[in-house]
Amino acid sequence: MKYLIIIEKPETGYSAYSPDLPGCVSTGSTTEETEVNMREAIEFHIDGLKEEGYDIPKPLSRSSYVEIAA
Q1: How many structural domains are present in the chain?
Q2: Does residue 64 form part of some domain?
Q3: Which domain holds residue 35?
Q4: Does residue 22 sit within a domain?
Q5: CB 40, CB 47: distance < 8 Å
Q6: What average pLDDT does range 4-17 have in this prediction?
Q7: Is 35 inside any structural domain?
Q8: Which of 56, 27, 13, 29 is closest to 5 using CA atoms?
Q9: Which whole number is the average pLDDT over 3-16?
Q10: 58: how many CB neighbours lie within 10 A of its CB?
């Protein structure tokens, strides 16, 4: 499955989350590290859901950019 992740740049480092997996977050020093860490967090999150007998959320989110004159 493919899950959308959002990577943001706060004051220090980077943080990421997936809109389809509430509570699943990660951080990193670079965008690349954050993406790797988020992949591991998603795998861990899904393993935990399976272990507890919960359904695995289907990836439903998508992204798009809108161009405007600024």
Answers
A1: 1
A2: no
A3: 6-51
A4: yes
A5: no
A6: 96
A7: yes
A8: 27
A9: 96
A10: 8
Cα–Cα distance, 13 to 29 (Å, whole number): 5
Return the number of other C-beta atoms located less than 10 Å from residue 14's C-beta: 20
User: pLDDT tens-digit profile of 26-69?
Assistant: 999 999 999 999 999 999 999 999 999 999 999 999 999 999 99
Task: Show the tokens assigned to 6.
Answer: 């959002």
pLDDT score of 61? 97
For residue 70, pLDDT over 90 is answered with no
Instruction: Please report whether residue 40 resides in a domain.
Output: yes
Tell me which residue has tokens 């020093």. 29
pLDDT at residue 16 greater than cutoff 90: yes
Report whether 20 contacts 3 (CB < 8 A).
yes
What sign does the dihedral 25-26-32-36 (CA atoms) show?
negative
